[in-house]
Predict the 3D structure of the following.
Amino acid sequence: MCLGIPMQIQAIDGFIAHCEARGVTRDVSLFMMQDEPLAAGDHIVVHIGYAIQKISPQEARTAWELYDQMLAAGD
């Protein structure tokens, strides 16, 4: 199973977004979403280093809640 990780864009430099999620920062390629208008503050789904979808803040929160539930069930 593959998971997409919700992250928030902090800054954009060309086709690279500097993103953050739960204190972890990553540089993410925006190449696959080059036709989508993106800006700092937007939420995206990241899969293997690429942004694959723009999502709302609520969708990002819901995804993290589900991930937290899955992790708690595994303990």
The mean pLDDT is 94. The chain has one domain: 5-74.
